[in-house]
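Re: pyridoxal-5'-phosphate structure - here you go.
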Amino acid sequence: MKDDTLLGHAGNAPFENHGVVNPPVYHASTILFPTLEAFRNVGTAKVRYGRRGTPTSYALEEAVTELEGGHGTISVSSGMAATASALLACLKAGDHLLVTDSVYAPTRHFCETTLRRYGVKTEYYEPLVGGDIARLIRPETAVVFVESPGTATFEIQDVPAIATAAHKAGALVIADNTWGAGYYFKPLSKGADIVVHAGTKYVVGHSDTMMGLVTCGDAALYKQMRDDIQSLGMCAGPDDAYLALRGLRTMGVRLPRHYENAMKVARWLKERPEVKQVMYPALEDDPGHELWKRDFTGACGLFGFVLRNSDQKALAAMMDGLKLHGMGFSWGGYESLLIPTAPAKARSATKWEVDGQCMRIHVGLEDPDDLIADLEAGLERMEKAGK
Ligand SMILES: Cc1ncc(COP(=O)(O)O)c(C=O)c1O
């Protein structure tokens, strides 16, 4: 089945629910058992207590598992909960963890605070390291964490080469696949063992729900992961699971439009004299383009660019007058967003030095000509204020 067909059907079982197309929202903590025998056999019941899952969360998990090509998925309350719980499930005191230096900043924070306190040593590596990661792997390296591309600097990682080296040394590979959304990138088919995903972004797609998804490539990992996540008490709420599954149904039409619009905006930005650099792997001259072409089937609406002018007053003149681009931390919704970023500050293993003001744009589903007009007026305000 092709992904677009799968997105319309996976996880749905209408005739288990009176023919209703979408799985209902099961609000549940207590589940009743009809007999003592059924109660005693709780281990065989799929639905037994709200925290352990409901038909609503199972439907979402089934659909995401099929999309990612995994063995099983666990839905949790946010993308960060997915990342944190997957790392906790795979690590113990004394372990060494390798994390890309381009990682999402709160993931780094988690490694430097909670994981450090529990005796896990995190080392950050050059995102473009590829197979040379082998040189950093120690006997106690338990996990290599990849995020391709990084959410602020957009380097594409050679996941297959990293996974080959990691597996040779007995380490697991966890991939943050929020940018690829399980649609344009399939890390499990490229060697990753576990995929974590902020469903908050493109799965939900409407900027109104938090959702985290952990998909495991095999049965043993899935069993352990589900058990560990249960012990941490993490679960997704039924309304959120419903909204995430509803969002997922249209992801296959939304993402190509984000991609098309983002290409148009990225190409336009590249030609602007105020813009020094555009970081979007789908652009032919992007340093990650060849790897992206090899491993991805498309690109989402999120990318970066660098403004030559880093004067903050001029930046404010541009940002404060934008009509269609909101200033907000998330992405993946239908609407366009633009924020200044400071990726150099987050690095510890490598230097990311570009003169100018870094920006991160999320190109939404609006008409790209209107988005370009909004940006053009903004750049003109910036130039005027910077003179
Ligand atoms: C790449 C990436 N991973 C994980 C997360 C965390 O997701 P959430 O905000 O749902 O916790 C985000 C959120 O911005 C993200 O961009």
